[in-house]
Amino acid sequence: MKHSKRLLKALMYAAVLASCVYFGLAFKTHVEQLPAIAFNLQTVLVALLSVLAVVVTHFFGTNVWRLLMSDQGHRVPLGIALQVFYISQLGKYLPGNVGQFLGRGVLAKSTGIPVGVAVGTAVFEGIWNLVISMALALLSTWVLWDLATVQSVGSRFTQQAVWLLPAALVLPWLGIKVVNTVLPGLSRKIGGGQLLRLPRLRTSLLVSLLILVNFMLLGWVLKLQAEYFFMHSGVDWFSVTLLFSSAWVVGYVVPGAPGGLGVREAMMVVLLTPLTGAPVATGLAVSMRLTTLLGDALTVLFGVLIRSFYPHRLERTPV
Hints:
There is one protein chain. This protein starts with a helix and ends in a 10-residue tail after the last helix. α7 (165-182) crosses α8. By secondary structure, it is mainly alpha-helical. It has helices at 2-30, 41-71, 78-87, 99-111, 115-149, 157-161, 165-182, 184-190, 201-228, 237-253, 263-276, 278-309.
């Protein structure tokens, strides 16, 4: 078992290294084919909107966490939840993809939120993100099939595929029921000795909707950047959202890549190339990484400011 874990860890780090090399070669090959980004009012506004959109996704993420805590009987004021969630974004850039959860636990303890509740719901939130993104990634195979066979995304694709999104909303809730029934041992391991507690259906739907909105918002950012940074018009918003979700989930599950660095970019080049062409796909991988870095930095800054001006301890023990 010990050797198996070492082998798996070595393979994961090798995958990260291979992804970084692949992306580096792709960037070197295609960077000269990219049009120079014009410095004008439109591009500046798109850049600002892109960074702010990342902050908005963290705001929605904070409310996802609050909903999950509230479902367990711990109501946390928005100001306290924001400072904990925002500052803990620093942890995502530590290897292993667990730093933000551990950091959230430490910060939560300082505010009076029980560590077990904070970390448990944070892990739950991560699983929820993973299931939603995997559902979107599954839908992205439809896009890739169209691009491989007819070299374009059908004009009615969005109308046809959007009806499958309600299934993505209930999928995590159903998934927990299945895991509890079929794999109770795994459920108890994740749940700290007990079966995973099924949130109320209303909570589950709201959590899923907010996560879905986050992915759609990031897809909108990619569409704007493709059109205004790299002069590639006609990018289908829904299609680019689905393809980005696939790249995101790979970067999320591969440990050893801080914030999916390198892995997400390599997957974006692979998956977006049939839609936008290799040069634009490479450019979007770079611009999106810079966008998320600046957005995360601004989010942490907001968290520090909120902590400075807002009480950072619960006034009473939540019930």
